[in-house]
Amino acid sequence: MNKEQRFQKVAELWNANMPFNQLLGFEISRFDDTRSEISFHWHDKLIGNPMQKILHGGVTAAALDLAGGVVAAASIIANMEEASAQVIQENLSKLGTIDLRTDFLRPGRGEHFVASAHIIRSGSKVAVARMELHNEKNDHIAFGTGTYMVS
Amino acid sequence: MNKEQRFQKVAELWNANMPFNQLLGFEISRFDDTRSEISFHWHDKLIGNPMQKILHGGVTAAALDLAGGVVAAASIIANMEEASAQVIQENLSKLGTIDLRTDFLRPGRGEHFVASAHIIRSGSKVAVARMELHNEKNDHIAFGTGTYMVS
Amino acid sequence: MNKEQRFQKVAELWNANMPFNQLLGFEISRFDDTRSEISFHWHDKLIGNPMQKILHGGVTAAALDLAGGVVAAASIIANMEEASAQVIQENLSKLGTIDLRTDFLRPGRGEHFVASAHIIRSGSKVAVARMELHNEKNDHIAFGTGTYMVS
Amino acid sequence: MNKEQRFQKVAELWNANMPFNQLLGFEISRFDDTRSEISFHWHDKLIGNPMQKILHGGVTAAALDLAGGVVAAASIIANMEEASAQVIQENLSKLGTIDLRTDFLRPGRGEHFVASAHIIRSGSKVAVARMELHNEKNDHIAFGTGTYMVS
């Protein structure tokens, strides 16, 4: 498998096998080591504050955390030599979020949302990503910074 | 209504009317301005990583965010003179999370979880709370710091 | 005074009257509501770790905090009607950092450093800025996010 | 050297050889893996805002960062077998701050300050510490969370 095939393989696996992401309607819509994206649609079950009808802060944090985790995973995979699916899985098994900061900039209103991420520190043990959440009008709803264990 | 009655009233309202908290099985089990708590049970739908069977980071962040929001709400209500339900609602309508840091300390495993919060900065405009997530064995799973707009 | 004159006035006042910034050799080199900058030169007194000869983390945090505070101040001033020096001072007296996250991305080595900031949330009570520290080779040394009280 | 002797040795070395800490008057007053402390006295050169005569945010962040770094160093040393000064130095050479959150809770006023830290995550690669800054009246001035690389 070349790099793009590995990216595609892992994106498919994760989209099919992560219960909480499925519950929220999250889909990994771009899996790449330069920029990754998570897409989801508005649904009433995602409401935090019923009077204001805006996304729960936990939905925003979950989307940013996943986007950062995906770009960190892609940067691990990109640095691997050609590898079997099993070797990729073993390398990704060490991936985990160490800490996450979420800045809630504007009310979480909209019909369609995209959380995007890119890497700002790419180390052998730790990676740092910054993330943004936008709606279909390109309103900048939230900003995030996440530190990930990568080995 | 005295302070305890107001706390009880708002806890009941929030438990009955917040879709995302209901989706995740979150219950406000203590609503108090000195210490607030959110309780929830393990459920497979909360899994982030299917290979490790641990809570999704977004579940952890959502629980910490809610616990901090509840203790911030309680501190707003505690500082109010005797007030009608409507006045309480108006005051709480301004409540919102500005930013949230989540530290993922240990894998999110367990059967029952409690997120607790207390206030470390109580201002007229902004409150800061620190939060912890523990399981039924009292393992310290996560730590959080949240900044909340209170007026 | 027009906006640019007000910016210049405050930049001069702050550069002349902030003891800790002078101790570290910090200079406000750009005071603007779209992007602000702090400049400083390497000096051995700024060393944290003598074996590695890199900037102390506190120097990095101080530069990012100041850059964010300057762009938050500029956004306050930009929103004011034409105002006297005294009115400006009164408005800025409420400015303060609520919280600051600093990500240390690369070792703090170099001869000349610039911390830059711009606003990502501009509210009537709270502003959020993101900041970066670069050296003369444009290495990205640190990243920051700061929440500021603005009224 | 036993554990206490190793702690003492490193505390002496660091107090004597860290230029920025000396510039600010910081002293490691407790070097221990359960709780570490940094002490310093008020000095006008530490002023951030001359109108309010309070500590610069960078001083607060520097003290918290150092306190967290010291308790992380102590936890590395505590886990080592009996070791020579050189082996200790080699192990500590990998220590570094990955990220730091500082919450500024109250104005930094006082005559004498203590920053204290303890570990909330102790891993083989990464440690997380939480820190507090108090003055001589025990006012809680600031709170911090730091993530440190330990190997």
UniProtKB/TrEMBL annotation, chains A, B, C, D:
Pfam families: 4HBT. GO terms for molecular function: fatty acyl-CoA hydrolase activity. InterPro entries: HotDog_dom_sf, PAAI_dom, Thioestr_dom. It catalyses: a medium-chain fatty acyl-CoA + H2O = a medium-chain fatty acid + CoA + H(+); a long-chain fatty acyl-CoA + H2O = a long-chain fatty acid + CoA + H(+); a fatty acyl-CoA + H2O = a fatty acid + CoA + H(+). It is an enzyme of class 3 (hydrolase). Its EC number is 3.1.2.20. Keywords: Hydrolase. It comes from the Bacteria. Residues 53-139 form the Thioesterase domain. Coiled coil: none annotated. NCBIfam families: PRK11688.1 (NF008675), unchar_dom_1 (TIGR00369). Belongs to the YigI thioesterase family. This is Medium/long-chain acyl-CoA thioesterase YigI.
